[in-house]
Amino acid sequence: MTSTDSFSRHTAARPDRFSSWQPLSLAALLSVCLSGCNYLVFFGYLIGGPPQIEPVFEAETGKSLTDHGVRVAVVCYADDELTYQYDSIDYLLSVGIAARFRQHQIDVVSPDRVRLWLEENPDWDTPDEIGAEFDVTYVVYVDISSFSLYEHDSRHLYRGRANAIVSVYEMDSGGEGHRIFTQDLSSEFPRLTQRSAAEISYDSFRSEYLLRLSDEIGRMFYPYGSGDDVSSGT
Prior knowledge:
Layout: H1 3-13, H2 15-33, H3 36-48, E1 52-53, H4 56-61, E2 72-78, H5 80-85, H6 89-103, H7 111-120, H8 127-134, E3 138-150, E4 157-171, E5 177-189, E6 195-196, H9 202-218, E7 224-225
Helix pairs in contact: 6-9
């Protein structure tokens, strides 16, 4: 009898112990293949889900909108040409951003209150005026330079696009604001193909894109899963 035959009979006689060895061998194999940080990330993913990406605002400033006692006002600005073509687009975007902030435990002033103040003070000049009025810690100011919902040269295909500059003003105790953060935003949705106007209404697509755009801006300020990158959306 060969040594191979002896091993076959030996394992066949004890199938219960062989079965219990399999998961242990898998763990041992993983521990060899996945070393150091990769090993920790792998099991962290299994236990707690995908890792969270640090928002760019926190990475650049060392500050957080979720800190205790922090209050935020959101102001979006679009010129008359844009608001004429896309009615109240600045207000609607501020509503969307504020909603995203609340979902991530950021204390934010009601966009309706901000809108009323802007209407009553049409000669306002700088974002820190709004910060002083509402006694907030930060003003998130979104200057929308372009916005569209249609594909180029088409009124039958939708594709949302926007360009903006997102800034944050930190308020001091004297009511003065200082800009501490600036980020350019270039947004396009969907990226891979247009949406037909025969498949979705104008209002529905506008709402869908505004939700998308709000989250793109929001993710500058709150963490999100590495598998949830909005830039890869279809």
